[in-house]
Write a structure and sequence with these properties.
Elements: H1 12-20, E1 32-37, E2 58-67, H2 68-72, H3 83-94, E3 102-107, H4 121-140, E4 152-156, E5 173-174, E6 182-184, H5 189-206, E7 210-215, H6 217-224, E8 236-239, E9 251-252, E10 255-256, E11 276-282, E12 293-298
Parallel strand pairs: 1-2, 2-3, 3-4, 4-7, 7-8, 8-11
Antiparallel strand pairs: 1-12, 5-6, 9-10, 11-12
Helix pairs in contact: 4-5
Length: 302
């Protein structure tokens, strides 16, 4: 990403109070918030906190709670979580009734990095479910005083281009999860979707979190194609296309001001959908701005 702390979800009363608060003049239309994700960024003010660089209220933080690589002990594993930014987002949410608090994402592994890969949809679905269980355990294991209040847990489904699996196991099967050696340059779409379904279903059956996904149209279609396996109209989404290195035209709603483009969702979801929740409009996917990852959050839909 390139989406805290003690297990729990904000109460409905707190959520309604936060969403009812007027947005800053820098966040528009009302209900939209600016936020950040992943690596620490210097947030302004001392409470209520303000969005770095582009101003406006600091409306939320989305952090990596875990990953398939870290869980399986790969030496290249990393964790993009900022305790400081999470705390600032939580303070704004609970004390000043601003924004959506802290959300979490899990860096998802495709079927090809499953240690028990056997080319069946049954195992692929089980692999997705095991990842969901681990993600929930990682949330429960957050340090004292940290919590995830945002009700959606995002699967980070992307093709990162980094070791040990540049495709995260969505396109290729590896000799072992951390080996970096491909033994099969093909993964059936049915297996990819079974993996997704396993994570999605486990969350719905074993937690209060709603399943969401972070991706982009080109990546999504490469992994899941354009047929029925690609359709997720009932799943909450966080997109990262288009992105810009410039912060001088921060978005209003789902479009950059100054004509720089509008958020592109995927899998049958559009910006008009109730499931279009977030847009990482700068800082991820290799589009650098000198600061970090900036997000637009529609708090009315969350």
């Amino acid at each position: 990403m390139t989406v805290s702390r003690i297990w729990g979800i904000a109460t409905a009363a707190a959520a309604l109070l936060a969403l009812a608060s007027p947005a800053s003049a820098h966040d528009s239309p009302p209900g939209f918030w600016y936020g950040t994700d992943s690596t620490y960024m210097q947030v302004r003010g001392s409470g209520p906190y303000q969005e770095p660089v582009i101003a406006g209220d600091y409306g939320g933080y989305i952090g990596m709670v875990g990953s398939w690589e870290r869980w399986l002990g790969c030496p290249t594993a990393f964790l993009n979580w900022s305790k400081v930014n999470s705390g600032q987002a939580d303070t704004n949410f609970t004390t000043y009734h601003v924004g959506v608090g802290t959300a979490a994402y899990w860096f998802m592994g495709g079927p090809g990095v499953d240690p028990q890969y056997d080319a069946t949809t049954t195992e692929a679905k089980s692999w997705g479910a095991r990842q969901a269980a681990r993600a929930l355990a990682d949330i429960r294991g957050l340090a004292h005083g940290q919590r995830v209040v945002f009700p959606v847990l995002f699967m980070d489904i992307e093709l990162p281009g980094i070791s040990p699996a540049p495709d995260n196991g969505w396109d290729s099967v590896y000799t072992s999860p951390c080996s970096g050696h491909v033994k099969q340059s093909f993964v059936a779409i049915s297996l990819d979707r079974a993996d997704f379904n396993g994570f999605w279903g486990y969350l719905r059956d074993h937690s209060h979190f709603l399943p969401g996904v972070y991706s982009a149209p080109a990546v999504w279609s490469r992994i899941f194609g354009s047929g029925s396996a690609s359709r997720i109209p009932g799943t909450d989404e966080w997109t990262y296309e288009p992105e810009t290195p410039s912060l001088s035209h921060a978005p209003s709603g789902w479009c950059l001001t100054g004509g720089g483009g509008c958020a592109q969702f995927f899998g049958g979801v559009t910006s008009a959908s109730a499931h279009a929740l977030m847009w990482q409009f700068s800082g991820g996917g290799g589009v650098r701005n000198g600061y970090g990852d900036f997000d637009q959050i529609d708090g009315r839909r969350s």
